[in-house]
Amino acid sequence: MIGNALLFTILILLGYGFWLLGQLQFIARYQAVLYHAYGTPILIFLAVLFVNLFGAALAIGRRFFLKNTGRKLSHLDKQFNASHADLPVPPSEEDFN
Prior knowledge:
The protein is mainly α and 97 residues long. Helix content is 72%, strand content 0%. It has a domain at 1-16 and 37-81. The model has no long low-confidence stretch (mean pLDDT 85).
């Protein structure tokens, strides 16, 4: 879940960054001056944007992709508590020889 939210956040920020690069070509000559004067506020803004997007992606993922998980797995819990559940034995190396 966290990996999917992280991937989604990175993709959104990369897309936003590439769009901004296209839109702000006219100030490319002043890149060094802008980084020197506004580098710290830009990095703080990007960090806050990253955290907010990550939180939103994680919340949306948890809300929609983990829906009814407890109800779907409740039958397994009932079988384990009834102590008559037969679990399949994983195949060993000897079975393949």
